[in-house]
Amino acid sequence: MAQVHVRTLKRAAAIVGGEEALALRLRATPSHLALWLAGAEPPPLHIFLRAVDLVTEHAFPMAQSAEKTSEPLKSDPHVSVGRRRGA
Fold first, then answer.
1. How far apart are CA 52 and CA 56, in angstroms?
2. Under 8 Å CB-to-CB from 1, ≥6 apart: which residues?
3. What is the pTM of this model?
4. Is residue 77 part of a domain?
5. Percentage of the chain surpassing pLDDT 90?
6. How far apart are CA 81 and CA 26, in angstroms?
7. Is residue 80 part of a domain?
8. Which pLDDT band holds residue 79 (cuts at 50, 70, 90)?
């Protein structure tokens, strides 16, 4: 599992512009980040998930923007929802 953490953190660092920038984005100390990048300790789950979010947002920018801008579907009063009797 440690390799997944290290790879994800390294990818996130590359995306945001380096280890110092990643530490800031993850709200972690650079010394903790260095331990996690070396594989000496696994990052806490919430830190790892933030890194996963950074990588995912970079890999799938359209999905993120569509998710943020999508509005709930409005019902059309002229369209019946559900089954008709006898159908």
1. 6
2. 42
3. 0.69
4. no
5. 64
6. 45
7. no
8. very low
